[in-house]
Records
---
Amino acid sequence: MTDTAKQETILGQLRGILEESSSIEPDWDSFGPQSTIESLGLDSLTILDLLYDIEEVIGIHLEAKEVLNVTTVGEIIDMLVAKGA
Amino acid sequence: MKRICQLAEYGFFRCVLFLCDTLPYSVTCLVSRGTANLWWLVDKKRRIVARDNIIRSGIETDPKRALAIAKKACYNMALVIVESLRSTDFLSDDAIDQHLKIEIPDDVKAVLEDPEQSLIIASGHYGNWEVAGHWVSRYKPVAGISRAMNNPYIEGLVKKRKSRYRFRPIPKHDGNTGRFLEVLDNHEILALLFDQHAGEYGMMIDFFGHPAATFKTAAMLHLVTRTPLCFASCHRVGPMKFEINFSPVIQQARSGNKNEDIKAILSSLNRDLENTIRQDPTQYLWGHRRWRD
């Protein structure tokens, strides 16, 4: 699978996770790697929920401290690709 | 004008502190009982909240007896302050055995003694949680959320007193998960009092048989970072004498169902707290509105 295809797959998985768990209703039409964490209604507490779900769905453990510093979905995708997703 | 008032408050607080440090413990207790009685008379709202909470918990059904428990609990809070201010005296190495009895399972002790491990301790406003924090800081530095005083001069003084043991307060308004993760990364102890109304961040978990919004932080940190988690309480058994009890490390394997995992952990913590409170309901902070349905 090419890197772009991998990224597309992960983006879809992340969207699935967020659709299930997000407390707000973001604009899914514009959802993409450029989407900010803030626009998805995630804060430092709910990001722990996201990490749990990522590990369950994608099977990759991300360090919470690293993820707290990211600002966009694309950065999370890059982390997951770097970890072998 | 505000500054003058704050300085006046600070001066009064210093005097109280001086008396607390110099008067015999029994006299300090008498003064704190008088202050608690005065507070009890003045704060009708909290008096009613405490009585209703006790009745709701099922610990007491008779309103008069519930009120009597609530009044003793009010005195307990005054004692918490006095004991905490003097805890450095009786937690010194040569005096500690006379004042504390510790029940600590091997798995928790192993974590505390391992310099490469951090620990999350969940507890409630029972007995004297400050004494427990002071004692456990013998192993590793302890960090916990604390509400800052409105008066910056008193806040500075309290911080200075607390720094005599290895406690690092995380301001309540800055309860950012990043601060918690930093504590865990440093292989320190994160002490969390989970028995306050959690609002929108909480999960509804039974507390004495009634759903209460319970903070998920301890459970989520445990599930995501794999940091060991346990419950602890500090029960007062006599004047300046305490029993500190730790639960074994809570082992919650991830099931894949996040909400079920969180619920299992928080239910276990609430049960531990309920059992602790049943030992002596007069040592619990009943004046907080835990149930808000």
---
Amino acid sequence: MTEVTTDDTQAEATDDIVPVSPRDALPQRSKPVGGAVEQLTEINGGTVGEVRCENPFIVTEGVDVYYGNNHAIRNVTLEIGTGEVIALIGPSGCGKSTYLRCLNRMNDSIDSARVTGKITLDGQDIYSKDLDPVALRARVGMVFQKPNPFPKSIYDNVAYGPRIHGLAADKAELDEVVYTSLERAGLWKEVKDRLEEPGTGLSGGQQQRLCIARTIAVNPEVILMDEPCSALDPIATARIEDLIDELSEDYAIVIVTHSMQQAARVSRRVAYFHLGLLIEVDETDKIFTNPQHKLTEDYITGRIG
Amino acid sequence: MTDRRDTRKIVEAGLARRRRKELLFQGVGVVATAVGIVFLLVFFASLLAKGTSAFSQTFIQLDVEIAEADLMLDGEIDLQYADFDGMARAALRKQFPEVSGRNERRELYRLLSIGAGYQLRDLVAAQPDVIGTTQTLWVPASANVDMLIKGNIDPQTEEALRPISDLQIEWIATLQDTGRLEKHFNRALFTNGDSREPELAGIKGAVMGSFYMLVVTVLLSFPIGVAAAIYLEEFAPRNRWSDLIEVNINNLAAVPSIVFGLLGLAVFINYVALPRSAPLVGGLVLTLMTLPVIIIASRAAIKSVPPSIREAALGLGASRMQVVFHHVMPLALPGMLTGTIIGMSRALGESAPLLMIGMVAFIVDVPAGFTDPATALPIQIYLWADSPERAFAERTSAAIIVLLGFLLIMNLSAVILRKKMERKW
């Protein structure tokens, strides 16, 4: 079997050997490749499984991202449906976070980053010239790996988004938005008497829920989460996962995670990335019980990653 | 692989040597610190020993008769040309009726400063109702009397070698015995401009000159410096040009200050034709000098703002401008202000560039605006240190004490400001 590592330098070195289609890269497979799978891979340019979905809200077609000369993700095609939770998994450096950051154009802030391909949100090309990233990010919220509340009061943290976008007409309305957001993030009971205290004074799990409250205060259509629980203990993690469950009723959620259990618990679909390639996408159950690709199987059984 | 017991032995054998080295290093550190502190103490001690005497000044009490007839010139009261010196001298002569002869009288008059006449004139101008009365006043004694009282002139030296005669010493002793000669607080030092007479010379002109200059400097260099730093850190693309700019800003911070003075002379005075010796030009020159310092400090402060805060704000849909002004600026402000205050205190202590733009002139009037001729505190120190009169020596030290006091206050406020704003997260 071809040796697969997550090391970046190795990834560079094997660039020439790894062709665009991962299928060819790894000829030995434990699973027989059926005709149906063969057909699917033909359609979606190399990715195994089902990249399409019923009510596509975000559609990425042949997306490539380069950081300078580093080709970070290659030819990724994926549809994300309205109101679905999709988990992006894969070893470190596989490009899942890069893909996530394409969806709200956070890669714009990196000078050397270059994105090609087409990404549409509700049919609108998000990389078109007429679209201001500011407007896009109001529709696509983001929660980061490390809780990063502003060094302001809890109230101001939540009120910041509505304030800059002018979403609340007056103080009463803003209070209402802050209350609803904190309530939905399951934080209201814990902070209702200390709204004027700094958000940085909360515990890690509370800070992350504050960040989620801050995100939903803008009332986005999609929430991107970049390993939101990696800095939290299991109890705080469980609370965030419950929260994701509740939020999934109203928002499409794209979550990057290193925890396969977490992916299994919170998501409806799972996308497996490897060395910048989208290897396999499917229903969560299917991925974890019957992965179609050898790499996926190796990863979820703990042989790589 | 060495045996475990060997490893232990080798480590233990080396321990003493390691400890010795550490002790030696600590010793060197303590000595270095001690040397620094000793020099600082010597410096402050000598400065205080020499300078504090300038904060008091010898005064002589006179009963001055302000007769209306003495003020009359061509039939009306003329304060400009009336002989106030003569009134003061007459009052002194009354206390020494035995003094006779032109030469002796002239010697007696030399006990008084010419400031005595000015003081009388100011009094009459402010309160015309004193005309026709006899006022008991403390008027400044001459610098030589002051020096004798302060012990800077040794009465034991040969008469010809000291600026004060035996007769004068006798009169001074008499005045002291009758309680008519005393040392008071030297208000003139803080309320007067420069003067050829040490007892009348003050630092107010220089302080005001420095003040106007710093106002110009802070008003220009803080906004320009902070704006440049924000642009370079947050908006400018990273390429060869921005690298070049960065290197040159660092170089600019290392340019000798006198070069900025030459630039100011060439551009602001010769080309733009701004008035010479003006605090406005001084402030412009000091702005050029301070800008790189502020830019470098502000950039460092902006860099130290965690990127996660920027990402959080960007992720919520804040524009880059909003990210800067809502999040980066408040967090970077303490660092920016510290850099600015340190730049300002450097500007306050700067003298070389000001020499080039004509601020080294002898200016008696206290400047009242940005374009009035003025000097600055360090320049005043330089001018006084250059003066031959003995009494200017202590004034030089006194001016240095005042300058250091200002610098101390500025640096202290930088520390307090930083602490206070940091607590406010």
---
Amino acid sequence: MTVAIAFSLVAPVGARQRPYDAIMKDVGSTFGTLRKTLETGDLTATTSDAEKLARLFTEVEQFWVPFRTKDAIDAARGARDAAVAMAGAAKAKDAQAAKTAATRLAASCTACHLSHREQLPDKTYRIKP
Amino acid sequence: MNRRLRFSVLASRFVFRFFTFVTVLVGGLPLAAQAPPTAKPPQTEELAREWFVRLNELDDWYISFDGQEQNGAVVDRFLALYADDAFHQVGPSDRQAGAVVFHGRDAIRKWANDFSKTYTGLNYRVEYKTRQEKPVQPFYVTEFPWGGTGASTQFEAIYTNRDDRRQFVVPAAVFFIFDEAGKIQSLRLYVLQNEAAEIA
């Protein structure tokens, strides 16, 4: 019982603390695949990628919530909402709506990167507060 | 004859050099006594300017990939300007009414840490005064009779709230008292929040 309670307290924290660069790399590769599936009209694959992106942006939002940084939280929520909309449109076989949602998602990414991503001379990235 | 002439020339040269030396020595004494005051003010101004540099660096840090706010180095650099028993006084905030005084390194570290995590886009810059097409950023420097120096200046505090990303410009002034080692003994910061203007 004690072990179960302790695990339940620790597990969510461990889940929340997946390294941010790992989440971003997942986002990058998933969004890259999604663009290709959208171009080829494979809406089944688009649905799957969009649903994965929605989960990833929930992680992104959870990363920013403790810092109370409104623009980053809003961008993550905007991206997640766009991913959910994209998944819905792809399921409904509405390729145009899915593409519009993908553009909205990309805009959320750009906004957050402009404000919170900095590239260092060695081409690695850092998170700006 | 030649020997006498040579002796007389050498003697007169010696006398001339001796009196020149004495004249320069005696005449130079008051100048030497005045030298330190003229040398100190620029140093005091540099100390005050360095405070602005390090204050503006308080937003120059990153969040690690595992979510740690890594502002320790910039806070340490800022704190190195203060004496161990320094006073740092700021205006009221929404957390405390009246003047807020931080005494000692630990207390000032807390202020710097909070400041560093609350604001971004820091650009506190000394106000320019321009006359006859000559712009300067003046510091008003004084030397205290008990040792140490003081400096003050007017500046514009430009900052962005980290949480809502709203940017402001606020007129402000700062008064420093430096000890003889050049550390801040006391600092009073006036930020006129009633005159704050939001930058759209």
